[in-house]
Design a protein that fits this description.
Shape: elongated
Radius of gyration: 34 Å
Structural class: mainly beta
Largest sheet: 4 strands, antiparallel
Helix content: under 10%
Oligomer: single chain
Strand content: 35-45%
Length: 717
């Protein structure tokens, strides 16, 4: 697998930003100064989402604006008195101006559409900006001017434009007709390559700046004297180029290799730009560029360690064996929350580590989760009360992992990876066995193959994506290390679950999935997939719970028992044991002969179902309807009735089968399995959770994980 070089370059830029913010800010030579502008006496730039100004040599920087929003795109008026910029003081992105000396910004545009500053008119009386306010499509933008004194905006007659710069005499305009396409594809050479047009207001003529054979991306023109300066990737990396309007000759002015020239801007006969996080000035009179040294020591509140709270940080969750508590992944920390009484408990308390997908062991002792504290994700076992030693199990796989699932005896854990592989771990020894792999890789961060454990911890129910795109149900015998197919692969089957008695296996299956199961087929837009609930009896002698009923007289239990015992005694036989288990070892026994002939459907109308669960002679599932909103249903095998319980998005049943953790939007609750809670009871106090964050430490972990995402999910062929 080759490294994705485009993504790697992005990571290096991110590394510079980390150095700039993550506690390594250089107060004498600061990096990550962005979107520069220049006048005769000052430079302006963006740092930490605010506008700053400094002398032209970079000395004496001072912050000009400060707000909760993002100030951007500063540009000096030709007379050097004003700075136009974009601000978000009132929520929307609009055009503002402020005196170079500072003061209260003045808002110039008021349209709901975003208005992006592009420059000034040569007489310094109006601000040039780009907007989609009058455009019928989001593909293009147009140019407008607005007086610095305020008033209505005037649209330029150019049909569409993105970047633009006036000629010094105001008679012409250099502009890019369309937005950048190369931001997603470096060295892009498709039909949307960026080119610069020279427009004459007098005769409406257009002159296209010359490009090499094969094209190039020429963007962000700055017009000084008789020369148009711009950045271009025509010779590889983006560098600064010039176009002489008279001779029509293009010349390369800088020779940077590692990182591109970004955001060139002209003023007072010079060009300022950013490169590798620093500001540079190009002086045409000397044909030389010089790096500026700008030192900033600011109170960057983003760096301050602090506590945060809110249900937006809630991710995955699990329920304790009896439902006394729940465990959640809350902004990368593993936290347990009480059902009613007590306080939440942060088990990890790691500000620079990403922990996720907790699972509570059925014996209540341990909470398993994945953590990248070593630089790679490993499986950790934490004592549920956080008292004791944390255990680490080094796991194998493709780098990213999801949803550890404990066996009922708490001796084994199943997990899946981003490569669509499933594994089982022996907790005591740490040994790992690969169970199976999907035949086709389907979209998504993960696909969880695992679905359920049998009561004796010997069988694993899972699904596998086959070469037909359909999922097929399998049962894996842990002792034999062998998988057995349950379904025939002619339907799309999912979510197999064992009954608590070991007599039945339930699952969803769809027989109309053909038109929609191929995710890449765009002809499926008008189709929808419905699935039904099915049941298979795992032993031949197990009578179907949905067999035809008949009213019959019954023999008293005592007489029946006596008669049966006498008959068996005469024949020298012992009374028959329940075939579901090996009575000596309490093991589930499955009859594989003709197992597909023992599959029946549950009498519930087909629908958009998910989250299958089981109880004692009860089936739980969620009907997501046509709009995706979930409602819990409960089907009783005894009464053969289906009842609607309550709205919810998902549920998890406790190990003892008596409680249920459910989620609705960003709320979590615990209730009796399959029952609606009493009004005002059972909701977990997620709002009380607070975790400490240290942004600089987190950013380094984010950078590292971003690299691992690129390594394990993307490739260059």
């Amino acid at each position: 697998m080759k490294v994705n070089t485009r993504f790697a370059a992005l990571l290096f830029v991110l590394f510079f930003s980390l150095n700039a913010y993550a506690g390594n800010t250089n107060p004498t030579d600061t990096r990550m100064l962005m979107q520069p502008a220049i006048s005769a006496n000052h430079i302006a730039f963006v740092y930490a989402e605010d506008i700053w100004v400094a002398n032209t040599d970079g000395s004496q920087p001072r912050r000009l604006t400060i707000s909760e929003g993002f100030e951007s795109n500063p540009i000096f008026s030709p007379d050097g008195k004003w700075i136009a910029f974009n601000g978000q003081y009132d929520g929307n992105t609009d055009v503002y101006i402020i005196p170079v000396e500072g003061g209260v910004p003045k808002r110039l545009t008021w349209h709901p559409s975003g208005d992006i500053v592009r420059g000034f008119t040569p007489d310094s009386k109006s601000v040039l900006f780009m907007s989609q306010r009058n455009m019928f499509t989001t593909r293009y933008t147009q140019l407008f001017t607005v007086p610095i004194t305020g008033g209505p905006a005037t649209q330029l007659e150019i049909p569409n434009a993105y970047y633009a710069a006036y000629s010094p005499d105001g008679k012409s305009l250099a502009y890019n007709p369309t937005p950048d396409q190369f931001r997603q594809w470096k060295h892009y050479r498709g039909g949307g390559i960026s080119n610069i047009w020279q427009f004459s207001f007098a005769d409406k003529s257009i002159i296209k700046l010359p490009q090499p054979d094969g094209g190039s991306n020429d963007v962000q023109p700055a017009w000084i004297g008789n020369t148009i300066y711009f950045r271009s990737d025509r010779n590889g990396e983006f560098n600064l180029f010039s176009y002489d309007v008279a001779s029509k000759q293009v010349k390369q002015l800088t020779q940077f290799k590692g990182f591109p020239v970004i955001n060139p801007s002209g003023g007072d006969g010079k060009v300022i730009f950013e490169q590798a996080g620093y500001l540079h000035i190009y002086d045409p009179s000397t044909n030389a560029e010089k790096k500026l040294t700008v030192g900033i020591a600011a109170d960057l509140l983003e760096l301050r360690p602090r506590f945060v709270s809110g249900d937006k940080y809630l991710r995955s969750a699990d329920i304790s064996p009896t439902g006394a508590r729940a465990v959640v992944d809350f902004r990368g920390e593993i936290i347990t929350v009480p059902y009613e009484k007590g306080d939440y408990r942060n088990l990890t308390n790691t500000v620079a580590v990403h922990e996720k997908t907790p699972a509570w062991s059925p014996d209540a002792k341990w909470i398993a989760y994945f953590s990248d504290s070593t630089g790679e994700y490993q499986l950790y076992l934490e004592p549920q009360d956080s008292k004791g030693t944390t255990k680490m199990i080094k796991i194998t796989g493709d780098g990213f992992y999801t949803q550890p699932r404990w066996s009922p005896d708490s001796k084994k854990i199943v997990y899946c990876d981003n490569g669509r592989n499933m594994y089982v771990i022996d907790v005591a020894s740490g040994s790992i066995k690969k169970i199976d792999t999907d035949e086709l890789y389907t979209p998504g961060t993960f696909r969880e193959l695992f679905n359920d454990w049998s009561f004796d911890s010997r069988w694993i129910a899972y699904t596998k994506v086959t070469s037909t795109q359909f999922k097929r149900v399998y049962l894996y015998n842990v002792a034999e290390q062998k998988s057995y197919a349950v379904t025939d692969g002619l339907s799309d089957a999912s979510e197999p679950k064992f009954s608590s008695t070991g007599k039945y296996l339930y699952f969803f299956a769809s027989t109309d999935a053909g038109p929609v199961i191929n995710w890449f087929d765009q002809s499926n837009a008008d189709f929808k997939l419905d699935n039904s609930i099915y049941l298979v009896t795992l032993q031949k002698e197990t009578v179907s719970p949905l067999a035809k009923e008949s009213d019959e007289e019954t023999i008293k239990k005592d007489e029946a028992k006596t008669a049966d015992s006498l008959a068996k005694a005469k024949e020298g036989k012992k009374p028959a044991a329940d075939k579901k288990t090996d009575s000596a070892n309490n093991k589930l026994v499955i009859d594989w002969d003709d197992i597909q002939d023992r599959i029946i459907d549950i009498p519930v109308k087909a629908g958009n179902y998910g989250n299958l669960g089981t109880g004692d002679d009860v089936i739980f599932y969620i009907d997501y309807g046509t709009d995706g909103s979930g409602t819990l249903h409960k089907f009783s095998l005894k009464t053969r009735k289906d009842d609607e319980v309550m709205p919810m998005n998902y549920f998890i049943i406790s190990a003892d089968g008596k409680k249920m953790l459910y989620g609705k939007d960003n709320m979590l609750g615990i209730t009796n399995a399959g029952e609606k809670p009493e009004a005002g009871k059972g909701m977990l106090n997620i709002a009380a959770i607070q975790v400490k964050i240290d942004p600089p430490a987190e950013w380094r972990d984010i950078l590292d994980e971003a690299w691992r995402v690129n390594r394990d999910y993307f490739y260059d062929p």
